[in-house]
Amino acid sequence: MDRIKKIRKERGLSQADMADALHIALKTYQNIEGGATRIDIDRLGMIAKVLGVTLYELVETDGISRDDIVRFIHEEKAFYRKIIDDKDAYISQLEDSIRFYREILRDNRAL
User: Fold this and answer.
1) Is 0.70 surpassed by the pTM of this model?
2) How crowded is residue 47: how many other Cβ atoms within 10 Å of its Cβ?
3) Rounded to an integer, what distance in angstroms lies between the CA atom of residue 86 and that of residue 84?
4) SS3 for 25?
5) Do 87 and 81 touch, CB atoms closer than 8 A?
6) Which residues contact 50 (CB under 8 A, 6 or more apart)?
7) Is 3 in contact with 57 (CB distance < 8 Å)?
8) How far apart are CA 71 and CA 98, in angstroms?
9) CA-to-CA distance for 102 and 108, rounded, in angstroms?
């Protein structure tokens, strides 16, 4: 995330300033900027806002068009939506299993 670091320094902001503005721990921000933490598109958008640039300016790279960036954003959002939907379905399955086993326990106690 060299671009984030470069723009942050141009704006005269420290990593601590960024962490405070994003309401995250300093170490978390350091991991983001150092590339150790994968960030989602929403967090990237918040970083862009704090830095006063557009998301496109933040991720601008030679050879990547604006259309490519838009497509990536849509794919990223769809990916996270799928994770959330899968999690919700899994929770529902677990709740069904809990109800089933409670009924078995209740039936066994009645005997």
Assistant:
1) no
2) 23
3) 5
4) coil
5) no
6) 13, 18, 21, 22
7) no
8) 41
9) 10
pLDDT, residue 13, reads 97
Give the separation between CA 88 and CA 86, rounded to whole angstroms.
5
Residues in the chain: 111
* Contact (CB, 8 A) for 24 and 56: no
Q: What percent of the chain stands above pLDDT 70?
A: 98
Here the tokens at position 39 are: 């960030």
| The pair of three-digit structure tokens given for residue 44, joined into one six-digit string | 């990237």
Q: From the CB of residue 107, how many other CB atoms can be counted at a distance below 10 Å?
A: 9
The span from the CA of 75 to the CA of 38, in Å, is: 15
Residue type, 41: I
The amino acid occupying position 37 is: T
Lookup result for tokens 């300093």: 26
Kindly list the distances between the CA atom of residue 11 and the CA atoms of 24, 40, 64, in Å, as whole numbers in the listed order.
19, 23, 25
Tokens representing 62 are 């030679």
Please compute the mean of the pLDDT values over residues 20-35 and round it to a whole number. 94
